[in-house]
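Many introductory courses stop at the sequence. We go one step further.
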Amino acid sequence: MTHVTIPQPEARMVRFETAGEILARKGRHVWTIGPDQSVFEAIRYMEEKSIGALVVMEHGAIAGLLSERDYARKIALK
């Protein structure tokens, strides 16, 4: 029986950005919407701002987070 050695690719370390580096690059502005705004308005706003999520604010407090993913799942599952 002949044994064949398959060369293995060289292991490389992949460096991921830190949260701080991403914020430095993208900025620290937080985009918000109110709870009475429609999902359509929220999606349009996300597209305009090139962002993937909005913080939902109600009476000056965080009420939730709405992301593109939240909406995409609902549409895909229907």
